[in-house]
Amino acid sequence: MSEYFTKFLDTSDFPARWRCGNWSEFLGWLHIISDVATFVAYFTIPAVLVYFVRKRDDFPFHKLFWLFGGFIFACGTVHLIEAIIFWHPIYRVSGLMKFFTAFISWITVFALIRYTPRILHLPSMAAANERLTLEMDQRMKTEQRLKESEAMALAASRSKSEFLANMSHEIRTPMAAILGYADVLLGHLKDPDNRNCVLVMKRNGQHLLSLINDILDLSRIEAGKLEIDVERVSLAQLVSELQSLMHVRADEKNLEFHAEFSSRVPEEIETDPTRLRQVLINLIGNAMKFTERGSVLLSVAYVRREDLPIEKYQPLLTRSSTELDLPTTGYLQFEVRDTGIGMSPAQQERLFKPFSQGDSSVTRTYGGSGLGLAISKRLTEMLGGTISLESELGVGSTFTLRLPLASIDDSQLVKPDLQHRALAVAEEKAKPENLRCRVLVVDDRRDVRHISQHFLEKAGATVATVEDGQQAIDASLAAREAGEPFAVIVMDMQMPNVDGLQAVAELRSAGIDWPIIALTADAMKGDRDKCLSGGCDDYLSKPIDQAKLVSMVAKYTKHISSQELQQLRIERLQALRATLSVETQPPQEVSDE
């Protein structure tokens, strides 16, 4: 054996195969080319098998693939050696390679015998295709059911929105007449008993209107359609207006109500003043409702983060465990403290849930829908803040509203004088607006036309009324031809024949650029934007507030020039175009890389 390996490459005693027998040139090259071609084919097959195994880690029987690859490669190598032997007699190498081929062949055979029973139990290609087809069918059915469920949910949401919009319109329209005529009666009646009867009617009408607003707000929040409009607002002015408004309610119950700044605060803050005012009115009104005697206090302070014990930060971490949600330097804190009935821990747990109150029994003393605090909590979260509660049964409650603020230095903090501001607000409200203008009121409801006319004529305006949009167009064109144009048009949006939006479009097309105020009972999301986009200059919802109506007419006849009005319209048009371009922009393709 040692002599064999010593002479393994010694070919002196072996002739090349071409020299054996009667080999012709053609037969020799035929054998060489065939063996080389067979080697190339045999080499390619295991290369493909190895590539497949490396790419498909999920495929079974990897060892069997490796054995087949080795076996076929060995066979191919034998053919390569056979081709070489025609020129160089390496018969010993050929024998060794054939022995290796036989060895790996038998290993492959044993592996086949071992794995064949398992391979036979594998599903057939037809079964695999059938299973894949069933899975695809089930997936398509699932997707179809999801699409149908989504379509049903969207249809239900649209039906709900339409129902709420119709409900709002149908209730607000008669409420406009009820509350309007209540104001008219209050201006005519002198007898205290009669005035008290009208005040009860007005107070209950306002309560019903407040309930409608709460239901609409909750619906918008749940549908994700309530937006926050952030702007810079004077904090002192906001609190002064709240103090003036809530003093009236406090006087009705003989309660003491005070508002104070317990520390220096920012002169201006960035927030949605309408929603912040709504939350604070809910909290203060709730405190007054559950306080029979004593006082209610609104305290406003700017608290730095380092001045607050760490346990007080827990409410701020309810939405995130990181410190990114914490204010940079501190937050603005509103505390509403009362000396009312207080609440037990069990009552506090269900307090912020919709349609829930501290006392849920049928015979509860205090009424209400249970929506105010639930809406306040959600609005506060939309503003980026939190509401917390501390209460003791029979002692009173303290609601704390916290709004995070950006970095503020001491030079930006002031201590407002609420007393002087409250007097200024009262004096401003006491000044009646004096109108000297012609106004066209358009509404299909006679009661609404009469009330609007009464309010405007009482303020000094000359008022003409028509019943629908076509009459409004005719009256406007006639007034322009006669050289007696209207200064303002107050236009109802929902009318028979020609509705408000159609009338506005035709008036604008006819070149009439007088200010148009949309008067509508619709109060759903987007109503104001729809009216403004349709050519109106402002929006007033029903029931009609006398002060708001007169103030809005005075705004467009006394305080805004025609040049300023045109600039406002241009800015609104540019904003609308920008919104439409974003909505119609095609989605960008996402690269697979």
Could you please describe the fold and organization of this structure?
By secondary structure, this protein is of the alpha/beta class. The protein has 17 helices and 14 strands. The strands form 4 sheets. Strands 2-5-6-8-7 form a 5-stranded mixed beta sheet. The protein has a 5-stranded parallel beta sheet with strand order 11-10-12-13-14, sandwiched between helices. It has a two-stranded antiparallel sheet with strand order 1-4. It is elongated. Mean pLDDT is 77; it is low at 312-327 and 589-593.
Number of strands: 14
Number of helices: 17
Spatial strand arrangement across the major sheet: 2-5-6-8-7
Strand content: 5-15%
How big is the Rg? 43 Å
- Share in helix: 55-70%
Q: Unreliable runs, pLDDT <50, ≥5 residues?
A: 312-327, 589-593
The main pleated sheet reads as: 5 strands, mixed
Question: What integer is the average pLDDT?
Answer: 77
For the record, give the distance between the C-alpha atoms at the N and C termini, rounded to a whole number. 60 Å
Structural class: alpha/beta
Instruction: Estimate the global geometry from the Cα principal axes.
Output: elongated
